[in-house]
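Appendix C reproduces, verbatim, an entry submitted by the partner laboratory led by Prof. M.T., so that reviewers can inspect both the input and the predicted structure.
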Amino acid sequence: MVAVDPRCRGFHAASMRFIHTADWQIGKPFRNFGEKESVLRQARLSAIETIGRLALAEGAGHVLVAGDLYDNDAPAPKTLLEPVERMRGFPAVSWHVIPGNHDYHRGNGLWDRARALGLPENVRLHLTPEVASLGDDAVLLPAPLRRKSEVNDLTEWMDRAESAAGKMRIGLAHGSVTGFGGEGDTGNPIAPDRARRARLDYLGLGDWHRTLQIGPATWYAGTPEADRFNSQEVGEVLLVDIAGPGAPPVVTRRRTGAFRWLAQTEELASAADLDGLEARLRALPDLPGLLMRLGLKGTLDLTARSDLERRLSGLEAAMFWLEADLEQLHARPTLADLEKIDFDGVLREAAEKLKQQAENAALGPVERRRAGEALVQLYLLTRDSRGEAA
């Protein structure tokens, strides 16, 4: 749910405002993105500063990080320090961190290394399942992971945890809510009604890279900077307000991501479809910050297929990243297309054979697709040789 700004509702003195976030995965590689890998890695660090500025602007004194601050449990020394230094830059904000399945806590592991290097006072690691203070009005009940995958529900201890009367109880965990589906990286089961059982005013979760509400007081924060297609489109955090013990949390989603990851499929049947496709894609907001996986299917003649190549080149330059999947897009040359491949008769004969292979139902889809692509390349080659514009 997205609610009205609670500052307009007259919350009493014991109310609490904090930010819930997770799955920063600092150090995550983006090797498939070539020279742009470093930009995507840097964006994950910049998101920490965005969260810090948001906390200050909204008067949120605490940021709760529900696991997977790092992408792996053995980051390089520089990678280990980079997020710490960015949190250090916001001394008025207390950052509360638990290990997740990517950066689980083990002896002499990354968290012991981080402590040995010296953490700033405003960065608090919660490496054991015990009640910790969240200021005068609330306590934190963390469920840190000590292994990548746990069979048992590590949030179960919260049911028995005692806290002073009148204090809000905030749970923080990393894993997959049982019976709700499966998008998490590993098991690490969490009971869907844990908030009710443990008398929690809020249970903040990490592991799913989507912002999701599980129950009245249970949320996945998603990731503050999106990192994959077919998952969270834009990075977000959750701004959480609780009026007092027993009051329902008021949760507001706030964008923190610089990039948008979008996957979609389009069907093409003729040259006339290309204008509409290009117009729709160019109308998308913030093209320089867009990463797109574009699936194309259907059938085009060679002239239209050549025009598509030109249009995709322009869109690729307009977007941060364009990944076009043409495996389901078939080439069907017209007689006019074939007439243009007529330099010495040999090329025309080759084109005829490729056309037959591309349309031969007795061949497998891979063979037909390869023949179609070869026909397209032959057409483009002869077009370039004729000096025609793309």
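The chain has a mean pLDDT of 89. Additional entries are available on request from the coordinating office.
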